[in-house]
Design a protein that fits this description.
Oligomer: heterodimer
Radius of gyration of chain B: 27 Å
Largest sheet of chain B: 9 strands, mixed
Shape of chain B: elongated
Order of helices and strands of chain A: EHHEEHEHEEEHEHEHEEHH
Shape of chain A: elongated
Structural class of chain A: alpha/beta
Order of helices and strands of chain B: HEEHHEEHEEHEHHHHEHHEEEHEHEHEEE
Distance between the termini of chain A: 32 Å
Helix content of chain B: 25-40%
Number of helices of chain A: 9
Distance between the termini of chain B: 27 Å
Radius of gyration of chain A: 19 Å
Strand content of chain B: 25-35%
Helix content of chain A: 25-40%
Largest sheet of chain A: 6 strands, mixed
Number of strands of chain B: 16
Chain lengths: 210, 375
C-alpha cells in the first residue's frame, strides 16, 4: 500500500483528478466526508489529507511515501526528499510587492512581512541588503497598508488580491508550481510502484500542455 | 540459579553483533575524548555540512567543542602511513543540530575507518562490512553505491561557474530532472551535455544494467574509470554473496572537497532515512595534511530504535508483597527462591500502581502465597 500525502483544498482536488485519471481512483475521496485517511485497497493506494505546508514533513519522515507539494514550501523548508516531477499545476510566482508608487530607500533597513522567512532571507542576502523580517501567517497584504512593513514577499497567482489592496508587484523572482515528491527510502523499496506513478503523471502533464 | 538475560533494545543488540563483526576483520575499538579544538570544525565546516557546534571555553582559555563528528578527529590524530595501515572502529556520542526542533541533539554513532593504503580489496572489505552491518539491523536492506568521479568529472567537463555547479549538485541529489533541464538550458550547454545531466537522476537500480546505461552518457575517460571501479567492487560483493542487496545510484554525491572514489548509503525498509553513510575520503586527508588514503562509514544507531520490536508485556515477572512484621531474612529468601526460577522479582510493601507485573505473591509468616494472575 502506497501512502500519498495530498494537500487539503483546491490543489489537492486538482492533483487527485490527475491521479484518478492515471488509474489511482479512490471512491472515498469523492464522497466528501471529513475523513483524513482515504483508502483504495484495489488500487493499492491510501490518500492522507494534510495541511499543504505539512506535506513535505509527512514525506520526509516516512509517514507518507510520496506527496504533492508546492515548490514554495520546498524552497522554504528544504526537506531531504526526492523532487521527482514538476506537475505544472498550481502555478504562481514568488514576488516582492509594495503599495503603489512605493520607492525603496536604500539607506534604510528594509522591513519585509512574509510567510516565507527563509526564502526572503536568501533572496535579500544575495542582494546584500540589510533587512528586518516580520513573520506573518496570513493576510500578508495588510502589513504594508498599516505600515507594519515596507514590502511583502509572497506568492502571486493572478495579482487580484494585491490589486484590491492597492499593492503592486515590484519584482518576481521564482516560478512556483506543484511538485511530486518521494521519501528517499520509499523510493528504493517501492521503486516499481513509485516509478509507475511518476511515469503516468508525467504523461498527464504532457497531455495538459498540448 | 537460572540467570535472567537483560532485554536489549535494537541498537544495543546491533552494537554487540557489530563489534564482533568488526573485530573479526581486525578492526580495533578506539575510544575518544568528548572534546575537540573548535578550530578543526571551523576549517572543515563543509565536511560537517553545518556550522552549528556546541562550544565552550576550557579552563586554560582554549575554545573547545563537543564533538559533532568523529571522523575529523580520527584523521587529525592518525599515525597511519602507506606501509602501516590503521583499522579502527568507534562507538561515540556526537552532538548536532536537529533541524526539526532547532536544538542540539545527541546522536549515538558507530563507525569504522580504514586509513593507509587503500586498494580495491580494502574498498571491497569496507563495503562488505557496511552491507553486513545493515543486515544485522534488518533483513530487508539496500546498500547503494556510487562513485564521486562520475558526477564530479561530468560537472568539470561542463565548465560552468561555481554557483551553477553547486545548484546542479543540489538538483542531482534530489533527482530533480525538470530542474536540471531548466538550469542546464539556462547555462548554455550543448545538447549532449544537457542530455547527460538529465539522465543522471534515473541512473539507479541494478548494478549491471545501470552501468551499461551510464556508459552511454560518459563524456570522458575518468567517468568510464569510475564505472569500472564500481563494477569491480560489485563483482567482489558477488563473490562474497552480498550482491543481492547492493544497488547503484549515481545521483548520490557527497561533498566534493572531501570525498572521492566509491561512496555509499544504506537504507532499511522500516525507516525513512538512510542509517548508514560512507565512502572514500582521500581529499579530506589531503586537506588535513595527511599523505594517506582512507575509507570508512558511520551508522546512526539512534534511528534504529524506531524499528518496531517486541516490547516486554511486563516490567517485572513477580511482585512479592510483604508486611513490616516479616523478618528481613524471610523476605530475602522468598525473593531469592523466585529468582532461582529465572524470574525478575520486586519486593514491595504495597501493590505497585506504576508497574506491570505478571504474578503477585504475598508473603505471610514466611509463607509465599500466589495471589492473582496479572494486573
Amino acid at each position: 500500500m502506497l501512502n500519498i500525502a495530498l494537500p487539503k483544498g483546491r490543489l489537492g482536488d486538482q492533483v487527485y483528478g490527475m491521479l484518478r485519471d492515471a488509474g489511482y481512483d479512490c471512491p472515498a475521496y469523492e464522497d466528501k466526508n471529513r475523513l483524513l485517511v482515504l483508502e483504495s485497497p484495489e488500487k493499492g493506494v491510501r490518500y492522507l489529507l494534510v495541511k499543504p505546508s505539512d506535506v513535505a514533513i509527512y514525506v520526509e519522515h516516512h509517514a507518507a511515501d510520496v506527496g504533492i507539494v508546492g515548490k514554495d514550501i520546498l524552497l522554504e523548508s528544504g526537506p531531504d526528499v526526492y523532487e521527482l516531477l514538476d506537475l505544472d499545476i498550481g502555478k504562481c510566482r514568488m514576488a516582492v510587492a509594495a503599495p503603489k508608487g512605493y520607492k525603496e530607500d536604500p539607506d534604510r533597513t528594509l522591513r519585509i512581512a512574509t510567510k516565507y522567512v527563509n526564502i526572503a532571507k536568501k533572496f535579500y542576502s544575495e542582494k546584500n541588503r540589510d533587512i528586518e523580517i516580520i513573520k506573518l501567517n496570513g493576510s500578508i497584504e495588510l502589513a504594508p497598508i498599516l505600515g507594519l512593513s515596507d514590502v511583502i514577499v509572497d506568492i502571486v497567482e493572478t495579482g487580484g488580491t494585491l490589486k484590491a489592496n492597492n499593492l503592486e508587484v515590484i519584482e518576481e523572482f521564482k516560478n512556483i508550481s506543484a511538485r511530486f515528491i518521494a521519501n528517499k527510502s520509499s523510493f528504493k523499496f517501492q521503486n516499481q510502484i513509485i516509478s509507475d506513478m511518476m511515469e503516468k503523471l508525467s504523461l498527464a502533464v504532457g497531455r495538459e500542455e498540448e | 540459579m537460572k540467570p535472567k538475560k537483560a532485554e536489549l533494545k535494537p541498537d544495543e543488540r546491533a552494537c554487540l553483533t557489530l563489534r564482533g563483526l568488526y573485530e573479526q576483520y581486525g578492526y580495533k575499538k578506539y575510544k575518544m575524548g568528548k572534546f575537540e579544538e573548535y578550530s578543526l570544525y571551523v576549517e572543515n565546516k563543509d565536511f560537517l555540512g553545518t556550522e552549528k557546534v556546541i562550544t565552550f571555553t576550557d579552563l586554560d582559555g582554549r575554545l573547545l567543542a563537543l564533538k559533532p563528528d568523529v571522523t575529523l578527529s580520527i584523521i587529525k590524530n592518525t599515525n597511519a602511513t602507506s606501509k602501516c595501515n590503521e583499522k579502527l572502529y568507534y562507538l561515540e556520542n556526537v552532538y548536532r543540530e536537529s533541524r526539526e526542533s532547532h536544538t542540539f541533539k545527541e546522536i549515538n554513532q558507530m563507525g569504522l575507518e580504514y586509513i593507509g593504503k587503500v586498494d580495491p580489496y580494502c574498498i571491497a572489505e569496507v563495503v562488505a562490512l557496511a552491507a553486513q552491518s545493515l543486515e544485522t539491523i534488518s533483513s530487508d536492506y539496500i546498500l547503494e553505491l556510487s562513485h564521486m568521479s562520475f558526477v564530479v568529472e561530468l560537472l568539470e567537463s561542463l565548465q560552468v561557474a561555481e554557483h551553477i555547479k553547486f545548484k546542479l549538485l543540489r538538483l542531482i541529489r534530489s533527482k530533480n530532472a525538470d530542474g536540471l533541464r531548466k538550469t542546464a538550458e539556462g547555462a548554455d550547454l550543448s545538447e549532449l551535455q544537457i542530455e547527460s545531466l538529465c539522465r543522471l537522476p534515473s541512473l539507479y537500480g541494478d548494478m549491471k544494467e545501470t552501468v551499461k546505461e551510464a556508459k552511454r552518457i560518459c563524456l570522458n575517460g575518468a567517468m568510464e574509470r569510475a564505472l569500472g571501479e564500481l563494477s569491480q567492487t560489485y563483482d567482489a560483493m558477488e563473490a562474497m554473496s552480498l550482491a543481492e542487496h547492493i544497488q547503484v545510484d549515481l545521483s548520490i554525491v557527497n561533498d566534493i572537497d572531501y570525498y572521492n572514489g566509491i561512496i555509499f548509503k544504506g537504507y532499511v525498509r522500516e525507516l525513512g532515512k538512510s542509517i548508514l553513510a560512507g565512502g572514500q575520503y582521500d581529499q579530506a586527508m589531503v586537506r588535513l595534511g595527511k599523505k594517506v588514503d582512507a575509507i570508512g562509514f558511520a551508522l546512526y544507531l539512534n534511528e534504529i530504535n524506531r524499528i518496531a520490536y517486541e516490547k516486554q508485556e511486563y516490567d517485572v515477572d513477580a511482585v512479592v508483597l510483604y508486611k513490616c512484621s516479616e523478618g528481613v531474612a524471610q523476605v530475602a529468601k522468598a525473593v531469592q527462591s523466585l529468582q532461582q526460577e529465572g524470574l525478575s522479582v520486586r519486593a514491595e510493601k504495597s501493590r505497585p500502581e506504576n508497574i506491570r507485573y505478571r504474578q503477585l505473591y504475598i508473603l505471610e509468616n514466611g509463607e509465599l502465597r500466589e495471589e492473582e494472575a496479572s494486573c
